[in-house]
Amino acid sequence: MVQFYELFCTPTGKSYVGSTAGKLNKRMREHRCLLRAGKHSEPELQADWDKYGEDAFSILFILGLTCPSVEMRRQYELTLMAERERKGKLYNTKRIAFQPPPGASALAAKARQANGYRPSAESNEKRRVTQLGKPKKRKP
To answer: In the 8-state DSSP scheme, what is residue 134?
Structure first.
């Protein structure tokens, strides 16, 4: 079951749209932790959080779906983003769901080269598809 949600800012009427295959409460804790630390990846969302405070934001559950594929999940999330973007009420700057940060692939390639590791293109694609949408595990 994939849950689609939005982090809604009451003063601005803008939303951050996301989805999770895990527990929604855990995903919201991750957003709040990043926002409280001033480290969220969406600068405008972070600025409004800093300006209006945590009480100005609410988490709205949009829909729970059983998505047979990652592509279907991705497409639905992009559809939700497009609806809000048409109204000028979207915080998300990345229109490609589950997009890695800029420069991530170059850093990964550099690390592989330094270690002498060279996976096949097929192996890379399998790994990429498996990891789509999964939160990174944090070291204790």
So the answer is: P
Q: Are 108 and 118 in contact (CB under 8 A)?
A: no
71 phi and psi angles, rounded to 5 deg: -60, -40
Please tell me the pTM assigned to this model: 0.66
Q: What are phi and psi of 6, to 5 degrees?
A: -140, 145
Where does 2-86 sit in CATH, by number? 3.40.1440.10
Strands 57-65 and 2-9: antiparallel
Q: How many CB atoms lie within 10 A of CB 76?
A: 18
Boundaries of every domain in the chain: 2-86, 102-130
Name residues whose C-beta falls within 8 Å of residue 62's C-beta, 6 or more positions apart in sequence.
Answer: 4, 5, 6, 17, 80
Residue 122: what pLDDT?
84
Per-residue pLDDT at 89 exceeds 80:
yes
CA distance 91 to 25: 20
| Higher pLDDT pick, 124 / 3 | 3
Measured between alpha carbons, how far is 50 from 114 in angstroms, rounded to an integer? 40
C-alpha distance across the termini of the chain, in Å: 28
